[in-house]
Design brief:
This protein has about 140 residues and is an alpha+beta fold. The protein has one domain: Roll (CBS-domain). It has six helices and four strands, in the order αββααααββα. Keywords: CBS domain.
């Protein structure tokens, strides 16, 4: 296993992002459509927060209702904004960080995703799933 492999080799660069003006219904749609669990919140390409699917579950009945029942979700989602639900103090990493450095951050902070930022701009995201897939290829 390479000790100096860069995170840029395993990060996702096809970024699904939200803006603070988006609503939580859009966020849930993106989570379900793309089968993802973390969405960076950006303002003109600069990360300002991170929204996780768990954040939505805390305020809604997203998994408790039938997919045809949207009234409850809409009512709950209309009570909150992206700004109110997202994590604001986001830890980021540069694309030239090593996979080992990222694994250490994910383990110590108990995060499941880290935005990758170069020169102040969001360029990717790396998740625990990306890391596990990398490790599986090495074995």
């Amino acid at each position: 296993m390479k000790n100096n492999a860069l995170i840029s080799t395993i990060m996702s660069t096809d970024i699904i992002a939200l803006n603070r003006e988006d609503d939580l219904e859009r966020a849930e749609l993106l989570f379900k459509r793309h089968k993802i669990r973390h969405i960076p919140v950006v303002n003109e390409g600069v990360i300002i927060g991170m929204l996780s699917y768990t954040d939505l579950l805390r305020i809604s009945f997203a998994d408790a209702v039938d997919e045809t029942e949207t009234e409850i979700e809409t009512l709950v989602y209309n009570m909150f904004t992206i700004d109110q639900v997202m994590a604001k103090n986001v830890v980021t990493i540069p694309s030239d960080a090593t996979i080992k450095e990222v694994a250490k951050i994910l383990a110590e902070k108990e995060f499941h995703a880290l935005p990758v930022v170069d020169k102040g701009r969001l360029v990717g995201i790396v998740t625990t799933t990306d890391l596990i897939n990398y490790l599986l290829k090495q074995l």
